[in-house]
Amino acid sequence: MCNHCDNEHKHAEHCCGARHNNGIQKLMIYKIIFVFTLMILTIVFKPEIIISQAFQLPQSAIKFLLYFILYIVIAHDVIKNAFKNLLSKKFLDENFLMTAATFGAFGIGEYPEALMVMLLYQTGELFTDFALHNSKKSISGLMDLKPEYANLVKEAGIEKIPPQNVKINDIIIIKAGEKIPLDGIVVEGRSSVDTSNLTGEVLPVSVKPEDRVISGCINLDGVIKIKVTSEFQNSTVSKIIEMMENASDKKAKAENFITKFAKVYTPLVVALALMLAVVPCILGGEFAVWFKRALTFLVISCPCALVISVPLGFFASIGAASKHGILIKGGNYIEALSKAKIAVFDKTGTLTSGVFKVLEIHPEGNLAASDFIKFAAMAEHFSTHPVARSIQSAYTDTVNPAEIKCLKEISGLGVTAEIQGKDIIIGNASLMEKFNIPYNKDAEGKTVIYMALNNEYAGFLTVGDTIKQDTVNTLRNLKNKARIEKIVVLTGDSGLYGLEDPEINSLIDESYCSLLPNQKLERVGALLKAKKPDSTLIFTGDGINDAPVLSRADVGIAMGKMGSDIAIGAADAVIMDDNPAKIPAAIEISKKTINIVKQNIVFILFIKVLFLVLGALGAVTMWGAVFADVGVSILAILNSMRILYFKVL
What we know:
Elements: H1 12-45, H2 47-55, H3 59-87, H4 94-107, H5 111-132, E1 150-154, E2 157-161, E3 171-174, E4 184-188, E5 191-194, H6 196-199, E6 205-207, E7 212-213, E8 218-219, E9 224-228, H7 236-247, H8 257-282, H9 287-301, H10 304-323, E10 326-328, H11 331-338, E11 340-346, E12 357-363, H12 369-379, H13 386-394, E13 404-410, E14 414-419, E15 422-427, H14 429-434, E16 448-453, E17 456-464, H15 471-480, E18 486-490, H16 502-507, E19 510-512, H17 517-530, E20 536-541, H18 547-552, E21 555-559, H19 565-570, E22 573-575, H20 582-616, H21 622-641
Parallel strand pairs: 11-18, 11-20, 18-19, 20-21, 21-22
Antiparallel strand pairs: 1-2, 1-3, 3-9, 4-7, 4-9, 5-6, 5-8, 10-22, 12-17, 13-14, 14-15, 15-16, 16-17
Helix pairs in contact: 1-3, 1-5, 2-3, 3-4, 3-5, 4-5, 4-9, 5-10, 5-21, 8-9, 9-20, 9-21, 10-20, 10-21, 11-20, 12-13, 20-21
C-alpha cells in the first residue's frame, strides 16, 4: 500500500505515479528557467571571452562547451529517446528530428539557436503534460458500494459472514441502515430501499415479499429477509465494479497529433536534407556550401511551432473552459467535444434538480388544501424519508409535536397517527388497500401520497422532481447552436417526471426509463455503434450508477457540485456548478479551439514549405531559419492564446 494514500482501496502505483509525474514536471520547469536564464546571460555578457583570457584557452572551444553543457541539461532526455529509438529502428519521430536539427545547428556554430530550439520544444512538451496529465481518478472508490458482510440466517441464529461465502438459496437478513449484500427475493418483511446508488432514482422504493432486490442498495427502515438468487461474483454491485474497470478500455485514445505528423514529415525532411547535402556534391558542387544549406534546411524543418502551438491551443482551451466553470481533463476530449453529434443525459440531478417537492394537492370533500397539507406534515413530522421531507417543507406553519399521538410507521407503506382527535392514515396505494380504503386510482403512475381521515378517503398529493432552470435553454442551444443531431434521455426513474414541458418533449428525440446501470451501458453502446464515423457521443450524469456510462461514452460529463466522487472521477469533463447550460458552452469552446489549431497548422506548414524551398536555394540564412522556427512559433503561440479570451455567447 502506498504510504501517501489515505484510502486503503486506492492503488499505490496510481498515487506514487501521479506524484512522480508531478515531480518530473516541476524539475522540467526549473530546468527551463535555469537554462533560459543562463543562455541570456551568456549571450549578453559573453563569459567565453573572460574565461579564454584568464586560462589562455581557445574562445571557440569554451563557447561551444558552455552552450553544450546547457544543451545537455535541457535536452538529455530527448537525445536519449532519439538514440533509444534509433537502436530499435523506430527513430523517425520528433525526438530524432529535434536531435538531428539541433546537432546540425551546433555543427554550423549556431549554438544559441540549437539551445533555443530545444527550450521551445521542451516548453511545448511541458504544456502537453499539463494539458493531458489531468487523468481520471482511480475507480477504486467504487469499492464503497461493496458490502463488507452478510447476515446469514442459520438454525442457531444469525451469523455475520463475508458475502463471498453466501450461496444461492441461502436466507440473509438486512437490518435498517445496512447495505443489501447480494441480489435476491424478499421472503419476509417490508421496507423502503434506497436504490439511488444504482438507478439514480432519488425516491426510495417500497419492497415486500416476492419483490426482487439488488445488491448495493441500502435498507432504510424495516427489517427484511431475502433469499439469495446469485452468488457475489455475479451480483449487480460486482458487475458494476467490473463494468467500470473495463469500460474505459473500450474508448479509443486519440493518437498524439505530432507523432502522427512526424511519421510522414520527419523521414521526408531528413531524406531531403541528405539529398541536399549529397546530390549537388556529386554533380560538382562545393561540399561545405551544400552541407551548410542542408543543416540550415534541417533547422528550418524543425517542427517546434507545431510541437508548441497544437498542445498549447488545447491547453488554452482547457483554461478558457475553466473560466466558465467547466473542467476538461485533456486536450483529446476537446477534439472529441467539437465533433459531438449525439447528446445523452441522465435525468435526475442532471436535467432535473434531484430535490423532491409537493407539486399538487387534491383534497376530497369539504377538506381544504391548507388542512390537508397540515395533517400530512404533522403525520410525517418525525420521518426522514425524502417524500416526508418534501411534505414537511410544503407546510409553512409550526408543528406542535405534542399534538401528534399514537404515531406508527408501517415499513414501506406509510404512517398512521392521531392528530387533533382525528385518525390519520397517510402513505402509498398499498397502505390504502391494507386498510380497505377506496382511493382515486386515476392518480397512479405518478409519485402519489394518499391520505385518509377517520378511515375516510381525504384525497392525495403528488410529489415530484423539478426541472432545472436552464434545462430548456440547454437542450435548445444543443440543437440550434451546437448542431447536436440527437438528444437522448436515459433514467432509472419509471418515467420522465419533471420533464413534462412541451418544448422539452419536442427537443428530446429518444428516452428510456427504469434502466439499471448495465442497461444504460447497453443503450449507449448501441448508440455508439449507430453513430456516424466522424462524430462523437457525449453523456452527462451525476450518480454512481452513471460511472460506467461516463467511461464508455466518447466524452463523459459529470455534475461536479452534487455529483458523486465516483462519477466525477470517471468523467472526462466536469460541470462545476451543475448548470447544464455549460454543456453547449463547452462544445462551442471546443469548436473554436479546433478552428484556431487548424489555422496554426495551415500557417506553419505554409511558412515552413516556403522557407525550406528558399533554404535549399541558399536564399535564407540561419537568421531566416530562426524566423521560420522561433518566429513562427511565437506567432502561433499568440494565436493559440486567443482561446483564453474567447467569450461564450
